[in-house]
Design brief:
The chain has six helices and five strands. The chain has a five-stranded mixed beta sheet with strand order 1-2-5-3-4. Helix 1 runs antiparallel to helix 2 and helix 3 runs antiparallel to helix 4.
Length: 230
Amino acid sequence: MYSVIKTRFVAAATIGALALSGCAGMDQTQKDTATGAGIGAAAGALIGGITRGGRGAAAGAGIGAAVGAAGGYIWSKNMQEQKRAMDEATQGTGVEVSRTADNQLKLEIPSDVSFDVNKADIKPQLRPVLDRFAQGLNAYPGTTVRIIGHTDSTGSDAINNPLSVNRAASTRAYLEARGVAPSRIAIDGRGSHEPIADNSTVQGRAMNRRVEIFVAEPATAGQPAAIPRG
């Protein structure tokens, strides 16, 4: 029985490798789809082969490829375009723009751009970044937004926890004032509980006072309008 399972696993892996071998020359969206298809095919073939024999492996591979291609790798050309626009808009500001492992667009906004100590009022330096960000969100109405506020470790949780939420709320209010639908935006605050630097130094505390913004595109997201340039 083990040798049969092993043989079918090798066959499943081969199917997955074939799906991945066509990635040369593809854009990122096509590569992600091919990767999903390969993983799905391998898993489907293995499960189908174990449960139903040779025909089950073939059927499982087909179903797995379709499911793998369709789900879990939602990084479309829309998301690529939004990242490109935010890379341009944040140059020289200290805001970090990245793609997360689960295919979300992430903006990490440090305190020297976003908020003063013990304040939830948005600094003038952040407004042009959020203006451009709101333009991108309005151009792609299928995306959703999650804003998370953070503080350093000075002060108690009774101060830091609501302050972190208020910072996220201020960011949400700014985006809403520029036309982003409130139903698309969720907020949260983590207080001082998720530091990214050493709170014993001035520089570390400044890094920990930050706002993180995540943009995600569900599989059912619609077609966008063009992002305004300039």
